Amino acid sequence: MLIDDLKTARLSAGLTQKALGVRIGSDAQAIKRLEGGVGSMRTLMAVCEALDFRLTGLGPGETLGEQLRHRRLKRSLTLAKLATRCGLARGTVAGLERGDGSVASLLSVLAVLAPGVRRRAPERSYWGQRDKRDRDVRLTPPDFMETIYAAFGEVDLDPCGNEASSVVARRRILLGEGGDGLRDDWSGELAFVNPPFSALLTWLRRAHEQWSVGNVRTVVCLIPVRTDSTWFHETLAADADIFLLQGRVRFLDLDGRAQATPFSLMLLTLGATPEQRRRFQRATPGFWLSRDAE
Ligand SMILES: C[S@@+](CC[C@H](N)C(=O)[O-])C[C@H]1O[C@@H](n2cnc3c(N)ncnc32)[C@H](O)[C@@H]1O
Asked: Does the structure show a pLDDT above 70 at 122?
């Protein structure tokens, strides 16, 4: 079940086995094996991190190992008792709690410890009754785009474009034309990214990777204030500038109707100059997070 969910998460992020393999520093074969229930817990955890795949039904903990331990203690089981119930050695269960071991052992432990464990639904938001066909289709309103053009300049690339969007970009990557912003090379001076929020981390990783290799000079992302992933803290925190928006952007649906946005938003930029950031600050209520503290 869990393994099936992993495959579904990969496909909905638009990733091939090869692309996901590269993302975790491995190869397509490792992903293929994992999707067949074979592999190491470390590979599994790397894939979960890459896909922003979280579990519900285990309990709190920074890592899967910690969550297992928490769940075992909550159920008042010793390592030895749990191992006996799963038909594993005590050391194997202890290893899993440290993040070591095989996926097969992990699945045996989960079957006993937390049979109801499943993927936590990706953090989607409610966009109103009318457009449940695809809640990831939210078009950036033209007035917000005006502040983007005025502060950052003309947009060269919209890597997750929509035919109905008013975003003016020299190049739009459109699914409907066979494009894929998660695979095609990005290009130009400035990319504006209002990504599908259901695969937010995947898009941020892609933006960071394309910016790091120099395919785009500046990236401006309009995204929810969701900053809890390890990757965000280890990588983006060092490279990105963040502007917390006051008030909420009202995205448009495909019929041009404004939708209430039920959470806070931020602008995340990579490679923006101080002058560009100052111009945005002057035009928009909110503030740039300071990096002064050491
Ligand atoms: C939130 S909308 C933003 C549309 C437009 N960029 C804007 O700001 O108005 C995200 C769009 O990305 C498209 N999309 C999803 N996956 C994509 C992919 N892999 N490559 C290109 N576009 C994708 C969706 O169809 C959707 O239209």
From this structure: no
Based on its alpha-carbon atoms, the radius of gyration of the chain, rounded to whole angstroms, reads 21
Residue 293 has pLDDT above 70, yes or no: no
State if residue 136 touches ligand 1 by the CB under 6 angstroms criterion: yes
Q: Is 20's C-beta closer than 6 angstroms to any atom of ligand 1? A: no
For ligand 1, the distance from its centroid to the CA atom of residue 172, given in whole angstroms, is 10
pLDDT at 258 > cutoff 60: yes
**197 CA distance to ligand 1 middle (Å):** 10
Q: How far does the centroid of ligand 1 lie from the alpha carbon of residue 257, in Å?
A: 18
Its pTM stands at 0.66
Neighbours of 41 (CB within 10 A): 22
Average pLDDT, rounded, for the chain: 89
Please spell the DSSP secondary structure of the chain, one letter per residue. Answer: -HHHHHHHHHHHTT--HHHHHHHTTS-HHHHHHHHTT-SBHHHHHHHHHHHT--EESS---SSHHHHHHHHHHHTT--HHHHHHHHT--HHHHHHHHTT-SBHHHHHHHHHHH-TT-EEPPP------STT-S-TT--BPPHHHHHHHHHHH--EEEETT--TT----EEEE--GGGT--TTTSPP-EEEEEE---GGGHHHHHHHHHHHHHTTSEEEEEEEEES---SHHIIIIIHHHEEEEEESS----B-TTS-B----S-EEEEEES--HHHHHHHHHHSSEEEPP----
The answer, yes or no, to whether any atom of ligand 1 lies below 6 A from the CB of 158, is yes
Distance CA 67, CA 75 (A): 12
What domains appear along the chain, each with residue ranges and CATH number? 2-119 (1.10.260.40), 142-288 (3.40.50.150)
Residue identifier of the C-alpha nearest atom 13 of ligand 1: 160
